[in-house]
Amino acid sequence: MHGLINRAVQAFVITTYGDKRWMEIMDESGLGFTEFEAMLVYPEEQSTRMLRAVETKLERPLDEILEDVGTFLVSNPQVEALRRLLRFGGVNYVDFLHSLDDLPDRARLAVSDLHLPGLELIEQAPGQFQLLCQPGVLGYAQVMTGVLRAMADDYGALVILDITGKQDGSDVISITLVESEFSEGRAFELGAHTL
Length: 195
Description:
- The chain is an alpha+beta fold.
- The protein contains eight helices and four strands.
- It has a four-stranded antiparallel β-sheet, covered by helices on one side.
- A hairpin with a 2-residue loop joins strand 3 (158-167) and strand 4.
- The chain starts with a helix and ends in a 16-residue tail after the last strand.
């Protein structure tokens, strides 16, 4: 698994639960190191051991934790660059959803050796969507559910999200857009600000 993914889990745990809890997790995983390097690729087995240790030490189901990681990736100021990458997908939540098919390619433009599984959006009816998350990264659909939930808040949309099963080997996230302008979204400007 790419180090950026492992590093995102690490940042989430440290920010939410503290350095001490992260050290306990890494000790539990028995990997022999305490930090992931963002630009390295780690064997799947090491990433899986770390995630199982996260589940054990946080005493929460891994699916819930990974959804929280997805929310963290969009809403935490430490990772503002990802939010910006996602917001380039469109001016409203529906435009954003339609841009998700291109997300793995956009991620690869930013980090050439980051290979995210494919995404396919199916619009079933106005306001009713399914997002197919292809296999390849443990917990990908759960992280994407957190990302979708946080992006809905970012756009000010009210949505109902649920992982509803599998279709042709892909995890299916059902998305119901209840209201596209439910609240005022977070401010977003095309140009980045520098101090």
